[in-house]
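Subject: Protein record for review, amino acid sequence with backbone structure tokens
Why sent: The fold of this protein is of interest and is recorded here as tokens.
Notation: Tokens come from a learned vocabulary of local backbone shapes, not from coordinates.
Attached in line: The record itself begins immediately under this heading.
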Amino acid sequence: MTTVTTGLNSYAQYGAAYARSAVTQTSLANVLNAAEDGTSSAANSATNLTLSAAARAQLANASAAKDFTTVISDSRAALDKLYTAAGVSAPYDASGKPTIDLSSLDRRAVYAIAANSGGKFTEAEQTLAAVTRVAGFNAALSPATQTAQLTGDYSTVYKAAADYLDGASNEEKATATWKAERAAVAKGLTATQSDPTKVPSGISNDPVASYLAQYPSGSPTTTQSFSSVAKSTRAALDEQAKSAAAAGKELVYDPGRKVGQMADLSGLDNRALSAISLNQDQLFSKEESFAAKRELDGRNRASILTALKQSQSSGNPADFSLGLLNTYSAMSAEERTATNWTTTFRDNAVQSYKATTSLLSMLKGG
């Protein structure tokens, strides 16, 4: 079995222990407690174009429809395909740096690899999958943690953790680790409802407390340079144009055009769309930039509507401001520039949240 002996970050080292068995796996809390300054696999892997949330959801839905035996087989094939594309034969090079990026795989596939389901995966592959899993957890909690720093309400972090854990596959939910961590998060939610200004203590298997102890202001996100994102996005659009040309059509960006193949921007994440919209490296046409801006505006309207619906569903008007702040916290600097979500906008949302929360508290006290 392939092993990795040098240069691994601390997440990966503890991830190997986690990955060996779904029964004896190290919990997220233990991994986070043990890790100090690890970097994700994406930091060292080749440039990739990140999928949009909608594209990731579509991928997850497709995986959910499969039986787990098929997921295992497909995951093995996906790894081999990644090796071929990267011109490598293992997930880490001699210095311990990742050679491939598993972010294109859905959570069920990553779990299958991390747990060595079917005995199909090497220890090094299990390690990389475990690192990817922890990175996903960190990414899910970071925006809410940044929001908590602004509002002083840590219930948002526990809600984010609950949502992330609830999105696990049935196979992962069947493990003792998932059950223990989900129960711990439920206790944390209850505690923060009583006092949202404090992080609960003394809860066993609490991955949120472990995360916040390490990343009190939110975990850093290692991203490609904006120039690299622009180049990858340019290549993706060129591929669409090539496909359209092969079908005897022109790739168009204006939905009002009667002739041509409409460009599909739905699979691009918001940072890629921001690269097109801002066009800092002059790689895109005015038509492409306008189309990207239109797509970004549509997604922003959808996120605002989601925040509004959440506040209506919960009966708490402060949840509207909270939803906006979580969206803001999840954005990169370039996305905020492209969408004009300024610090003034953020500060107004914080003020609105605090004023609404204070008023509700007074009414309850009365």
Remarks:
- Strands lie at 251-252, 261-262.
- The longest helix spans residues 123-151.
